[in-house]
Request: fold
Amino acid sequence: MDVKMLNRRQVLRGGMGVAAAALLGACGGTRQVVEKVVEKTVVVTQEVEKVVKETVVVEPAKTYEEGELRVLVCCSGPDELAAKEEFNQRFAAARKGVKVTLESLPAGQNYFEKLQTVIAAGTAPDVYDMWEGYVQPYAKNGALMNLDPFLEKDPILKKSDFWEGMLPGATWQGNMYALIFGVMPGPVSIYYNKKLLDAAGVAYPTNDWIWDQLREAALALTVGKEGEEPSQYGLTFQHWFVPWLYWIWSNGGDVFNEDETKCTMTEPPAYEAIQYWADLVVKDRVAPSPSMQASMQGAVNMFKTDLVALYLGNCWDLATLKQAREQGLDWGACLAPKANNGNRTFYLHQWCWGIWTGTKKPNLAWEYVRDFAVDEKMMSTFNDIQKAVPGVKRMLYTFLTPETEALGWAGVVDILGDPKKIRYPGAGEKWDKISTIFQAEIDLVFAGEKSAKEAAEAACPKVEEELARA
Amino acid sequence: MQVAGVRVREAAGLRRRGLGLRRREMVMGYVMLSPWVLGFLVFTLGPMLASIWFSFSEYKIVQPPRWVGLANYQRMLSDELFYKSLYVTVRYAVVSVPLGIAMALLVAVLLNQRIWGARFLRTIFYLPSVVSGVAVSLVFAWIFNYRFGILNYILSLVGVHGPDWLGKPQWAPWAFVLMSLWGIGGNMIILLAGLQGVPVVLHEAAQIDGANAWQRFWKITMPMISPAILFVTIMSIIGSFQTFTQSYIMTGGGPAYATLFYLLYLYRNAFNWFEMGYASALAWVLFVIILACTLLALQVSKRRVHYEGG
Reply:
């Protein structure tokens, strides 16, 4: 590029021009400030005080954090998910700057394995589904927020609003770590096939039946030749810890002592209860063995297909049984029977919300779980689907419908109010392994390979070792 | 001299270009390897190192790990379920591996014949080994069904009352051994390739010398395919020690721990019982066991396996 250089003459001309401009600017056009008096006529209007009423909207002090609230649920069907989404929209609409995102995992997708993983990764949702067996381990390991401070200062919900019998499943070291919105005893019902009972001339069971009456009915309802598998069983039940806890507790026994240091399955009330029910399979042959039941695709399926007349079942079986009713299965239900000593103690199933300790919106999360538990529309829908009693006592009316009356479940309310009638086994995070140890031995009892006493004697040392482990 | 100098300079220039080319090729090689190397570091080596750390820690997943030294390994020594699961797994391996290889070899020998449809049959025999483990487990749960399963039905046709395969502790492990034969297709293909690599002239020479079919098989075929047999043996041992899906889906480890395979017990500790630290220790013990078995197989193979070319 060629740069044109200024010659000396051009520089001098330019400099003279700049100097002239500066001189002119300095000399010419200077303003002169002159004071001038101006006379002007001013009309003064009368001053009037005017009261102005103004409506001012005073925003209440915000009790929650704004932003997105993530909620993780497990095992909800389409109807339940739709109801929860509708609740979430109402919840968010009532709070400025809040959005609720619902994340769902279908049943059978290892929900708790996934939950552990996201907690370990630090990406857990703010609020998540909890069940009774997981509250204590998660609370102990710092994954659940202590709700007692919220309950103490909240004007809408207090700890005394919950059924006393259900608190052990949601507390750890005396504090509540999960907010219960649904609870049900387990196994709650005897479902009975009316057609098969009528054909055998057996009276329908009632809430006052005891085990011996159930056994007699099962004997009368079993159809089959000697030495062969029955073509129709009198009774069936599931083979996991919920039924055998109900048997043991109802019979006056227990799995551990009060301070959870000693296994008490070797005491007669405990192993005799197991033996009683095992004899229904092994000696009386009125109930299918676990493997036979598995080959028939489970206890509920056997009941639905007229292969069994009586089924000791759970509240969540109701949905599938209602469908079966529409397809022609005529059935009824009542509470599970009392033990021969007149006692009846159930296992405590709970539906709860947990708040992650790492949440950035603890107050919003609290308001969510609280509002969920006391929302009439949500609780009515949830109870209609799951048939669970609301965790909050004053919401009981959403459960007491003609349908639950017909199922004999009005009596459930008395059970929930008494901690002796509904229990949680304890042992915190060790329960899962301990129940596996017991189950392995109990499987052998129901296979006829050993007695309940022998099974208890084999299991107890391993259980005590597990209890003693830090 | 000038010509020589030019030649020297030219040679030096060529060497410089050669080095540059070699270096470029080397760099390009590493660049091409890098995705795998990165993946190995991030998804294999990294987790392995973390697992070693966890094995010396009490780690409940939802809480950070806490160093406890050898406590997890010491606990194993008195853990009855550890021994039980190890026994179940070793017994399964001892039976299913030789049986599976024998069956695979038998099928491979049959398919090595010049028969119509051999290629089609090879595909048919191989296909089961590529089917998902979960799907296979669900189907076999039905096959072994005590009342409605096809296996007991077939047995009833010959007057045998089939056992409760998955419901009795005495029968459940054997059900899994039988089920393992479903997947012989992979080994069959490898052994078939080995069989097809045996030079025909050896058989012809042996025939001329008066050797019968069995002698030719035992003295010629088996030594010639011994490297392939070694390979499938080692891979089968490793696979059998890693059995998990079948027991998880079909029996859950029951009845009465009869099918509590080692890996299932490890999984339970890790994800059901908040014992990830102990589970990590179990994993490293399994690694040592598999490594020991592999080294033993390699040691035994020195006398038994014949490689062409010495």
